[in-house]
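Quick one: structure tokens for this chain, please?
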Amino acid sequence: QVQLVESGGGLVQPGGSLRLSCAASGRTFSRSIMAWFRQAPGKEREFVASITGTTGVTIYADSVKGRFTISRDNAKNTVQLQMNSAKSEDTAVYYCAAKWGLGQYEYWGQGTQVTVSS
């Protein structure tokens, strides 16, 4: 059984930085595709960023490109999301997700709240 546990959420001022982390267990992490999604109040969950297992190829949503950076440490089974130049519209619950093939993300964390406010 795969488990994903997010940490690092909290309150950040506009223009500030925050680093989210997700710890994975239960399956060969280095072969996974990991991603971050977010869901703001009253909105659907949306893709934020993803990173492949061994090659580390990244994809970003246009709304976060140039501000957020996704990275992973296969030795520690973790994936991070560095959030810089935070905006109020980044306020959401952030979810870590994982998959081991094509198609939909199979496993999800419980989410961590990020609030951007002064």
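The chain has no helices and eleven strands.
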